[in-house]
Amino acid sequence: MSEVSSNEILSNPANILAEKMNADVLVVNYEILPPFDFHVMGVVSSRKRRKNVVLFLTTEGGSADSAFRMMRFLQANYERVSVVVAGWCKSAGTLMCIGAHELFIGDLGELGPLDVQIVKADEMDEQKSGLVAEAAFEKLQQEAFKFFMGFVRDFGASEYRVTLRTASEIATKMTIGVVQPIFDKLEPVTIGEDFRSNRLAMAYAERLNTHSRNLKRDRALDALENLLSGYPSHGFVIDYKEASVLFKNVSVLTPEMINVVRHLGTDAVLPRSRRNDQAPKLEFLSDELVQQNTNEPGTTDSEGNGDRKRANGRGNGRGQLPGDSEERGRPESSAS
What we know:
The protein has helices at about 5-10, 15-20, 35-45, 65-75, 90-100, 130-155, 165-185, 190-210, 225-230, 240-245, 255-265, 325-330; strands spanning about 25-30, 50-60, 80-85, 100-105, 115-120, 125-130, 250, 280-285, 290, 310. The chain has two domains: about 5-110 and about 235-330, 2-enoyl-CoA Hydratase, Chain A, domain 1, CATH 3.90.226; about 130-190. A six-stranded mixed sheet has the order 7-4-3-2-1-8, with helices on both faces. Strands 5-6 form a two-stranded antiparallel ribbon. Strands 9-10 form a two-stranded antiparallel sheet. By secondary structure, the protein is an alpha/beta fold. Mean pLDDT is about 80; it is low at about 115-125, about 290-310 and about 310-335.
């Protein structure tokens, strides 16, 4: 069987990174939804693994269930999980980052808030934030109070002599008349579903962080609370500087990581999706580490190779996603 030479190993930037961090180098670029999550776990399971993993993650987001499932699986199979965010990594991608022991964020890298996106009723492929109902309640409460205080002040400043009690009663009736039609349009069942969805994201994040312990959570700052409800929009940009406020272990990309990003091209920055009719990008970039069959560690073969060899095949497990067509389900090879 032919061996991969040292020059061939070093010519692959992912192998250099793998050697430095004693880690498998894995790229995942797609929507985090079933059955893609099971496909990722299958690819990892079929590989002879190093003790650590460096995950280059690019995604628009997806299912909190799938994100938790994938990151929990990586935590169980590797001693240390590092996530590289060179570009877009939103929503469920942020949830996966919470499970990483260390984050590496590039100049174009950005996370997003953790509020769960819920599919709109009677809408195709459109979603709304799970915090919309909560924001609506808060705004209505503020406006109702403003209406009430404004009515009381107006009566008090008028030429008519009325007591504070009378002014308050009149202001209450007028405020109810203004805001009640708006409150009547809010559906209690929908509000309850949104609340449960956001509690789901919190529960998953807490469990992932129990393993990674990378979120800052103390009296001064609860990073999880910030990610769940501390940002004004779902698309808010959480760049390296902002992430440094939320996470304990955040670093810029190393030179070896930058070389891998250049090797990947747009796949390291721009997310693939079904809407654009794109196939998932799922691949181990580093060559697989294979232990030589020997009873004496440190022995060499006739060619002078040590007791560790690298397989030429990367063991990517490229295959069709369950339920997908052959063209859409096959992860593409790495960019040159």
